Structure formats: C-alpha cells, structure tokens
Amino acid sequence: MVYLDRNEFNFEPSQKVIDAVRSFDPATLCFYTRIYDEGKKSVVTVRLSEMYNVPEERVLMTYGGEEVLKSAIHYYLTKGNNKTILIPQFSWWYYNRVASEVEGITEMYPLYEETDTFSYHVDEVIEYTNRIHPRMLLLASPNNPTGNSLTPAEVSRIMESIPSDTMVLIDEAYASFISCDIDYIAPLVNRYNNLIIARTLSKFYGLPGLRVGFGFIGEGQEAYLKFANKYLGYNRFSEAVALAALESEEHYRHVADQMEWDRQLFQKELGQLPGFKVYKSVANFILIKYPTAIKAALQQAMAEHDYKIKFMGDPGLEDTLRITLGRPEQIQVVVDTIKRVATAK
Ligand SMILES: Cc1ncc(COP(=O)(O)O)c(C=O)c1O
C-alpha cells in the first residue's frame, strides 16, 4: 500500500537517524533519564533551546505535535469560564474534536479562496478575535489542508491587536517545508506571554511513527507548564532518534526540495484539465479541486493500484483531494491515474 493520505514521509530517514536507531543501547531503557534532577525536561528540549534560542523551561516536548495541541486546548479551555476557541474555517478536523473533548465551543473565522490559493485575511482574524473574545485563537501556518501560511509580520500584527487574555496557538507542523528560518520564533514567544508555537518531527523530519512533537511558549505560563511536563522524563529511545533527526537538517532539506518536482508535475499535468484546479502548496501535500463526477471511479482506480489519497469531506471542500507529496515514481502513478480516469469516455 502506498500511503499518500496523511502527509507522511515516503523517503529515506537520514543516515544519522538510522545510525541512532541501530546503535541505541537497550540497557539505556532500564533507567529513567536523570536530566530532570538538573531541572531540565529532556536532552531534546535542551538541544531545541539552543537551536531556537528559547529558554529550556519554555520549550515543550510532547507525544507528537498533536499533544501540544491537546494539552494546551484541554488546559486553557477548562481554566475559567471562557470555553471558546476560534479556528480557521477550513482546517485540520482534529482541532474541533480536541475542543469538544472538554466541551469547548468552536467558532470559525473565514479563509478565502483566491486565484490558485487560499488566504487568511489578517484584519478579519483580528476583528473576529476582538468580537468573539475567545479563550484561544488557533492559527495554522501552513494550514492543513489549504496549504496557505502567515508571515511572522502578520503573526505580530495579530498578536498586537487582540486581547492579551486570548491564548494564541500556532500550529506550525508543516512550517519547515517553507523555510529553514527559525529566528522569528524567539522574538515572538519572548514578546507575547499568550503565545504557543507547536512543531513536530512528524512532517519535515519524516518521523511520524516516533511520536515527538515540541513547542515554545511565552513567559508567565508556569501553571500550564506544570500541567504539560512529565515528572519522570521522556522516552529515551525517542530522545536519541529525535536528536539525530535534529542534526540532519541537510538531508531533510534536500528531500523537501525534491517535492517541488511533484508540485510542478501536478500543475503541468492536471492544472489544465477541465474541472481541475491545483492550489499552491508550501507544505508536503497539495490540494486539488476535481470534478466530483469522477469520484467513485477515481476511488476505485486508486484502490486497484493500492494507493491511498485523501478525498476531502469537509464542508466547502467536498470537491477537493489532498495528496501527500511523495517520491517521483509514486506521484507519476497518481497523476497518470487521475488523468486516465478524468479523460475516460
Ligand atoms: C495540521 C497538523 N497539525 C499537527 C499534526 C500532528 O502530527 P503529529 O502528532 O504526528 O506531530 C498533523 C498531522 O497530520 C497536522 O496535519
């Protein structure tokens, strides 16, 4: 089965990751890490603190990026009376699910479809936030499934213009695909107490099976940190592999660069077909509008090839597909299959 439906990694892990797995001494697992005796969470948070230049106590380490989202949403929506979270209109379905687990109230702000992309209207995000005054505002950059993102300047403008008791959570699970610039993060989380930025090793670093996410939080959120941190430390095997992944930037950047070939192939081969539109993508997936009359035939054709792609069902996106950017030969199969089904008489 070829999985191109959950934005996983169809390439090779870096040599450093492979070496870290092979050389891991199982005896390490017979003991807890003792780094917490030094007041630190993990060797990984120490490394992330150096890389991102954010004090270690404000670096979060979690079970996948999903756990940054879950712990923050569960915590902030259950402290006090305000249980409202504001999320993008088209976004990862899981945000709504996590909020509903604690009886949160989800409100949405719009995303707009422009020529070949979706976009946030920053003024509108600000207006919605001031009017609704939610406990949390969720921004996703790049957003899944629409693939559009916010610049650091836009994030600053939002932070400057909204109530300071609204906790802002930026899901940056796919951010490293856009650029390796991480220098904007420290100034933002040092300036705004009400900000959390969530990242993960699952996407750019290609390790969804490792379940390591991380994040950065503004000052003054000690009660949340107490809630989120682990008393006896973290998974030591995951820590070793995570460190190796963080040292493999070059390998993963090279993989990310290769995905441009996929994007161009989709645009070239499907962009001109009647009823199709290939949206701009800055992540490891691409959103494609297609004529839904071919949906059943396309589902069958993909199943015959043992390929999984995502047929979107979200309101407003029922006529789109989201396809993970994989290896060239995989993407060629997807493109050929779609073309064959779309042009069949
Ligand atoms: C938008 C978004 N955020 C976060 C995640 C979290 O992934 P993980 O828990 O594997 O880090 C995903 C996974 O698909 C995602 O699509």
Short description:
Helix content is 39%, strand content 18%.
CATH topology description of the largest domain: Aspartate Aminotransferase, domain 2
Largest sheet: 7 strands, mixed
The first-to-last residue Cα distance is 28 Å
- How many structural domains are formed by the residues? 2
Account of the 3D structure:
- The chain is α/β, with parallel strands linked by helices and 345 residues long.
- The chain has two domains: 2-10 and 250-343, Aspartate Aminotransferase, domain 1, CATH 3.90.1150; 15-246, Type I PLP-dependent aspartate aminotransferase-like (Major domain) (Aspartate Aminotransferase, domain 2), CATH 3.40.640.10.
- It contains twelve helices and 14 strands.
- The protein has helices spanning 15-22, 43-52, 64-78, 94-101, 122-132, 152-161, 185-191, 222-228, 236-246, 249-270, 295-304, 328-343, and strands at 2-4, 59-62, 84-88, 105-109, 111-113, 118-120, 136-140, 167-171, 195-200, 213-217, 277-278, 285-289, 307-311, 320-324.
- Strands 2-10-9-8-7-3-4 form a seven-stranded mixed β-sheet, with helices on both faces.
- Helix 1 (15-22) packs antiparallel against helix 9 and helix 3 crosses helix 4 (94-101).
- The mean pLDDT is 96.
- Pyridoxal-5'-phosphate (PLP) binds at residues 6-7, 64-66, 92, 140, 144, 171, 173, 200, 202, 208, 213.
Keywords for this structure?
single chain; 345 residues; alpha/beta; Aspartate Aminotransferase, domain 2; seven-stranded mixed beta sheet; 12 helices; 14 strands; globular; binds pyridoxal-5'-phosphate
